[in-house]
Amino acid sequence: MRRVFNFSAGPAALPQEVLEKAQAEILDWHDAGMSVMEMSHRGKEFMSIAAQAEADLREVMAIPDNYKVLFLQGGASSQFAMVPLNLLRGKTSADYYRTGSWSKKAIAEAKRYCDVNIVADTETGGKFTTVPEEGSVTFNPDAAYVHYTPNETIEGVEFSYVPDTGDIPLVADMSSTILSRQIDVSRFAIIYAGAQKNIGPAGLTIVIVRDDLIGNVKEGAPAMFDYAVHAKNDSMYNTPPTYGWYLAGLVFAWLKEKGGLAAMGEINQRKAEKLYAAIDASGFYANPVANHCRSWMNVPFTLANADLDATFLAEAKEVGLVTLKGHRSVGGMRASIYNAMSEAGVDALIAFMADFEKRHA
180-239 pLDDT, tens per residue? Predict the structure, then answer.
């Protein structure tokens, strides 16, 4: 078996230890005589899996007791609608940061349900390469909530701070940064994240929502878009993505074994710093993002000669470095270095980049 270093932005690599454990349990989970994929979501076997996964997530993220943790379907894109449907609570507007492709999509969906006040727009010349300075944004005191995307997966732009919104509920799309470091959950009203980057396979979405914000869904909203429905039914109003939930639980347990989010944050910062240092020290590679808001998770870079892009990708694949092509809206390359990407993988990429530059500069 040959495992490559997979730099995909999502679906992304999973820890090998997690895959090996899932492999060992694929036919028979804990002498149940069946796979997790075959279990009733209401049976005692899967109920124990679900409960343990939630308990481990609460532990690694230090989630306060006054927050519900929901395991849902629909991806983060469904949350673009669920957030306004649940949080408007009679108000007519919400504040949004516009800092990249995913926040743009969140804004477009929110406009279907309320007036959107864009408090900051960092697009310049069709590109997003920075975020607003901390404390530079003024919020509408009548806003139902403030929404932002802490890490823009496509552009590789990241907030180094949590916006201070005072008493206005703060909502964060953490799809590509959740579990990468410690955060203070109590500063947020809602955290939501698609699983396919740092949590597990595609098809599962985690929503962490404060209790007092549940139960006032917009009239006429579908039951499946009501947080209260899911909270009341322990995320089992419908058949949930059971295997994705199980794999997420294995990832949460793996994180605990690795020392939790404090240890993971140190590793992730180290990985990012060494990759950016290699880019910055080169006259052949460049990163377009302002230094103070470079992502730890998604590192875009360009070659001095774009005609060499295809050659770079082909040669990288030959040595086991895959899925490095940048998003079409940005171009160049993008290395996504989520939790499951080892330091050895980042080191291998840096070594290849240096060798490629030597041969093609």
Answer: 999 999 999 999 999 999 999 999 999 999 999 999 999 999 999 999 999 999 999 999
Per-residue H/E/C for the chain: CCCCEECCCCCCCCCHHHHHHHHHHCCCCCCCCCCHHHCCCCCHHHHHHHHHHHHHHHHHHCCCCCEEEEEECCHHHHHHHHHHHHHCCCCCEEEEEECCHHHHHHHHHHCCCCEEEEEEECEECCEECCCCCCCCCCCCCCCCCEEECCEECCCCEECCCCCCCCCCCEEEECCCCCCCCCCCHHHCCEEEEECCCCCCCCCCEEEEEEHHHCCCCCCCCCHHHCHHHHHHCCCCCCCCCHHHHHHHHHHHHHHHHCCHHHHHHHHHHHHHHHHHHHHHCCCCEECCCCHHHECCCEEEEEECCHHHHHHHHHHHHHCCEECCECCCCCCCEEEECCCCCCHHHHHHHHHHHHHHHHHHC
Say what the pTM is.
0.97
Question: What's the CATH class of domain 259-360?
Answer: alpha beta
Please give the CATH number for the structural domain made up of 16-257: 3.40.640.10
Tokens found for residue 168: 């206005």
Write out the catalytic residue numbers.
102, 173, 197
| pLDDT < 50 positions in the chain | none
The structural domains of the chain, with segments of one domain joined by +, span: 16-257, 259-360
